[in-house]
Amino acid sequence: MARAKSQFICQQCGASYPKWVGKCENCGEWNSLVEQLPVDTGASAVARSSGKGKALTTLKLSETATETKQARLATGIADLDAVLGGGFLPGGVVLVAGQPGIGKSTLLAQVAAFVARQQPVLYVSGEESVSQVKLRAERLGAVDSENLQLASSNSAEDIAASIQTGQYDLVIVDSIQTLSLAEIASAPGSVSQITNSSNVIIRAAKASNTAVILVGHVTKEGSIAGPKVLEHLVDVVLNFEGDRYGGFRVVRAQKNRYGSTNEAAIFEMHEDGLQIVANPSASLLAERQNLDGSIVLATMEGARPLLVEIQALVNPTNFGYPKRAASGFDLNRLNLLVAVLEKRTKLNLSDKDIYINVVGGLKLSDPAADLAVAMAIASASAGRKLSDEAVVFGEVGLGGEVRSAQGWHARVKEAKKLGFIYAIAPKTHKDAFVRGVGDLRQALIDYLQ
User: Fold this and answer.
1) Which segments are annotated as binding site?
2) Within this chain, do residues 183 and 329 fall inside the same structural domain, yes or no?
3) What average pLDDT does the segment 113-130 reach?
């Protein structure tokens, strides 16, 4: 009998190749192909399935039972409940992703300990033993909890069967990349294993009306590892961001079928677990020194206003090509702002190394950070300071014009609460607190001293 030819499957997009190649031509990922035995699909599978279906049982809209008033499971953390849209919905599947050491298991152990005070919870670990999970749970406050059950398994079938019993209101699976189905020959973490294991668990969650949390790994680029279909299968995708060695950790919803994606929860790691930062703006500015290159930005983390310090350092370059580096800010956006500064002002930055840092380990995606970053670069380059009484926000266009920012009322309110006197912002925002500027050149001339 002829030997079955193996295929090479991309672990990011699922494309197949007859031989190994370094780069997937479909999605562009490097070194993502893994050798697998071919699966019996195609025309034969279609032919076998034809004629086996039966007509669906349908209901009128008026006859369909509504489940909108189901009680959600509170997490014990008000900000996390807001990110989820009110807590965990029974039958909902949540994917929590973040880099190693960021605090995913710690946060979920805290949530499991709180929920277990009222409802039965199952915590399944595919990476740790039961004793290791117990040590963490006890350290985080789940002492002698009768409702918290622990298990260690890599079998998706066994976990799905446990969910279908209906004995648990919340099931936590850590992590989806370690699970496998016995019917599939590929290794755990492959596209086929992740896709099919997720399907089995999600079906069990929907059938038993059980809330399920899946933990996912991330790649070195920061995206969720595995096929993109995993994010489409689940109901909520939470991203855990920040610096695992210090600073704040931010949990935001990348996808949420049951709530808003504009909320964010800001945590700080302590000995007894992750704690919500009550006033992150004050914490971020507590150690600030008003030097040249330091600007206070009024930004938005989801729907929450936040004041954060932007630092810039400008030095003459010792090489033929100047260096641009950014921590917490998009490097392409930095290069664009440097070009605007050179073109629309009299600053000469072509022979300068420029470094940008967002204090606190935060990653900014707010377009209104442009004006603060540009003023920080100009301040560091010219050796001039901005007043301690000012905050800055506004988007900068290619013509040097300062454009309006979303949520500016919340930004102004947060600045007032922390004792700032005025805001340098787009002139389209009519408020006594705002000192409007029309373009970048005007902002530099009028306010850098």
Assistant:
1) 98-105
2) no
3) 91
Q: How far is CA 435 from CA 300, 308, 344, 374, 404, in A?
A: 20, 19, 21, 17, 13
- Tell me the CB-side half-sphere exposure of residue 404, using CA atoms within 13 A: 7
pLDDT for the residue 133:
87
User: What are residue 168's phi and psi, to 5 degrees?
Assistant: -120, 140
How does DSSP assign 362-386, residue by residue? -----GGGHHHHHHHHHHHHHT---
**What pTM value is reported for the model?**
0.79
**Residue whose C-alpha is closest to residue 295's, from 281, 309, 313:** 309
What digits encode the pLDDT tens for the residues 329-339? 999 999 999 99
Count of CB atoms situated within 10 Å of the CB of 254:
13
Q: Does residue 268 lie in a domain region?
A: yes
CATH number of the domain enclosing 395 = 3.30.230.10
Q: How many CB atoms lie within 10 A of CB 263?
A: 21
Strands 211-216 and 170-174: parallel
Distance (Å, whole) CA 388 – CA 165: 61
Q: Residue ranges for the binding site for ATP?
A: 98-105
Percent of the chain with pLDDT over 70: 93
* CATH number of the domain enclosing 205: 3.40.50.300
C-alpha of 142 from chain center: 27
